[in-house]
Amino acid sequence: MGVVDEQLRVGLVGAGPWAKLVHAPGLADHPGTRLTSVWARRPEAAAELAESYGATVAADPDELLSTVDAVAFAVPPEVQAEIAVKAAGLGKHLVLEKPIASTVDDAERLADAVADAGVASLVVLTRRFAPETEEQLAQLRQTGGWVGGTARWLTGALLDGPFSGSPWRHQRGPIDDIGPHAFDILDAALGTITEVLSAHVSASGLWQLSLAHEGGATSTATLTMTVPLSPPVVEVSVFGEHGYRQFADRGTSPQQCYTNLLDDFVAMVDSGTTTHRCDVRRGLHLQRIIEEARRKAGV
């Protein structure tokens, strides 16, 4: 990679805060990708973002898909799932946001489309692309003997800041937005999550969950986006016969995590690889956990 003709031409679907902060600069700056086209439901937002990076504005998703090798998504899950199924069918590689869809049925349809097309897919599970996270997960696997864990993701993101005006986040809440991150790391640390043992959401939007893992470990997750904590609390820890370990955050930014994701993505496309620890099947697994949690909580 590096020669312009060999760069992946990537279209960006979405032009909201996360697209501006992470996707667009990441795709424009990465040596293996070129941001060539932008489509968003608000044409003026798409135009503003595209202009910043010398990309074209697509009139609709079909026009965007006709000009690119890959598509990155930064839109609500139900919008993503519909366009991503079509993109995969056209042989386009996918960078997907979490959750990958709004229902398990749609997530299954998307995973099937990706498998049938043989395209590369990655889900933006940001912390999994921080080197410190993978190093710690490798150490945990090597040591073994972990019997339990807990994740606490406590933010005021729906009260203030760039995502406070996001309708889908208000509608779906933390279980869909930050839940996938928490479940992904607990699952990777303690073994595959096999069951949501209990789930409750309070009137204030505070989720409390209990999870069962393959191999017998159990964990808890506390999630909220409506408590004005500054700074927010993001902690994941495990414990067992070798003591108590809390995942360290060495300050790898979301932007750097996204660059690391693109490193993997470009390498997958280059080598024809379609499997990855954070591919579409991971997204489907997390979607099933979300749906089971909603059922147990009665929402």
Automatic annotation (TrEMBL):
Respond yes or no to whether keyword Oxidoreductase is given for this record: yes
Entry keyword set: Oxidoreductase
Query: Lineage of the native species?
Result: Bacteria, Bacillati, Actinomycetota, Actinomycetes, Pseudonocardiales
Record's protein name: Putative dehydrogenase
Name of a matching Pfam family: GFO_IDH_MocA
Q: Where is the Gfo/Idh/MocA-like oxidoreductase N-terminal domain?
A: 8-120
GO molecular function annotations of the record:
nucleotide binding; oxidoreductase activity
Q: What organism does the UniProt record list as the source? A: Saccharothrix variisporea
Keyword Oxidoreductase applies:
yes
Cross-referenced PANTHER family, in alphabetical order? BCDNA.GH03377
